[in-house]
């Protein structure tokens, strides 16, 4: 299963946004990496559009080909293409696990899903890109509940904000999906309209 495994702080600094969440190294040096990182450059329209796409891609851990497929799917549906694209990305199982506070980062959430620690409606699902639907019930497997990352998640759960389109029940290690997220419920520093403009060229 292909994915980007390189240094995320470097990507965060290049794109000017914390892609990891609570990245201390990014907070310490919030300017682009490299010898010319502190120099000021005027970005072209294309560079701005590309940066927004890369922000979304790296934040959700999606490769270029898959991201393009998501865009194509969202452009075929009725509604605002940018909003639908973010909704697709947000409803991925690895992101749901992260948003529910059951993992510290999306990378950790992805690993937990791949290792088969989650059930969706009683069935084991180990595909990070699996898309949840309204009324889905996601449970941590009984045997997996004492894994250290999940124990830590349970004990520190109050520190995380869970979006309104889902409920997280840390005592039961369960996530309830009420609906697919609206744009207002998706907290990510991305201007999706620039992504639409980039792909519309």
Please explain how this structure is put together.
By secondary structure, the chain is an alpha+beta fold. It has helices at residues 8-15, 24-28, 45-60, 64-76, 81-90, 93-99, 106-114, 148-155, 192-199, and strands at residues 118-120, 123-124, 137-140, 166-169, 174-177. The protein has a 5-stranded antiparallel beta sheet, with no helix packed on it. Helix 3 (45-60) crosses helix 9, helix 4 packs across helix 5 and helix 6 (93-99) crosses helix 7. The two termini are 30 Å apart.
Low-confidence sequence ranges: none
Q: Can you list the strand order of the major beta sheet?
A: 2-1-3-5-4
Number of strands: 5
The profile of the biggest β sheet is: 5 strands, antiparallel
The general outline is globular
Helix segment count? Answer: 9
The SSE order reads HHHHHHHEEEHEEH
Q: Give the class from helix and strand content and strand pairing.
A: alpha+beta
Estimated helix fraction? 40-55%
Distance between the termini: 30 Å
Strand content: 5-15%
Overall average residue pLDDT: 87
Cα radius of gyration in angstroms? 17 Å
């Amino acid at each position: 299963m292909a994915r980007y495994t390189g240094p995320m702080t470097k990507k965060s600094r290049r794109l000017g946004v914390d892609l990891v969440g609570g990245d201390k190294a990014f907070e310490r040096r919030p300017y682009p990496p490299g010898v010319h990182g502190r120099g000021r450059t005027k970005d072209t329209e294309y560079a701005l559009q590309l940066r927004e796409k890369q922000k979304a891609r790296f934040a959700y851990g999606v490769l270029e080909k898959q991201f393009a497929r998501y865009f194509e799917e969202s452009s075929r549906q009725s509604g605002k293409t940018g909003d639908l694209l973010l909704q697709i990305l947000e409803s991925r199982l690895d992101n749901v696990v992260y948003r529910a506070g059951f993992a510290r980062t999306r990378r950790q959430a992805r690993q937990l899903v791949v290792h088969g620690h989650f059930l969706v409606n009683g069935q084991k699902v180990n595909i990070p890109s699996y898309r949840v639907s309204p009324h889905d019930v996601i449970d941590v497997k009984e045997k997996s509940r004492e894994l250290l990352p999940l124990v830590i998640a349970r004990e520190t759960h109050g520190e995380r904000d869970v979006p309104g389109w889902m409920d997280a029940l840390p005592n039961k290690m369960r996530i309830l999906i009420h609906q697919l997220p609206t744009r207002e419920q998706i907290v990510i520093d991305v201007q999706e309209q620039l992504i639409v403009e980039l792909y519309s060229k």
